[in-house]
Amino acid sequence: MDKLMNQLRAQLLENPAVEIKDTAGWSIPVNIYDASFVRVKRSKMDILIKMMLLAFEETDIRRAANLTEMLLVDELFIDDLMKKMQRWGLIRLEKSIFKLTGKGREQLESGIIEEELDEEWTELFYSAAHDEFWSEKSNETETDKEWSVYRYEQVGELDKDDERILEVLSEQENRLDENDFQTIVAHVHRFEKRTVEYAPCLEFQLYNKDQDIFYARVWNTCLERWDDKLEKQIEEEERVEWRKRWMEEKEETE
Q1: Domains and CATH numbers, the chain
Q2: pTM metric for this prediction
């Protein structure tokens, strides 16, 4: 960490107008959540499935053999497809007759089939100080020093907002599979806080002589970049006091 501090100090002092007035090291809590979710694969409906759905819509189908006779397709194959359609919520059994569901009718009209995939899980990293989820967290955050907690730490637990969590997972997990079919997160099964880790941050309190401004730079080791959100928080709380204090110190030395 000392090496990183020296590297950042040298970077900031490349501008000869900049003075480093003070430095500090502290950490921000990062809540780690386990999230399980289910994605669906979206693909263009093939002609066989379309014909089967039309049959369920227009004809009384009691068993796979009825469709086999109509479509001249192997009965075991039809039976397997019917079980999948039930699992996907496209058809249901009513009084011994298979009927198209509202979902099945929508997909028949759109020509897009949505296949539910197996449940998956991932980690989500949440910083209350930022009120943000991070897609990943650097592992290069170890330090042998005792770090105080960020002085403007936001206290409180994250409210479980299913829509927000679904949005975050969608941004991270939606993708195209190896066959260029779109897979999207459909719903969240479980969202539980597992632990809290602390991400060290390096703070620099600076003065630019040419512009006559005091400002903060904060290096977030978790994100491996300058953190403008934390910088803004500190400046809003302390910049006026910095000017007063350092201007008084300057007058005393003159």
Answers
A1: 2-36+119-253 (no CATH), 46-110 (1.10.10.10)
A2: 0.72
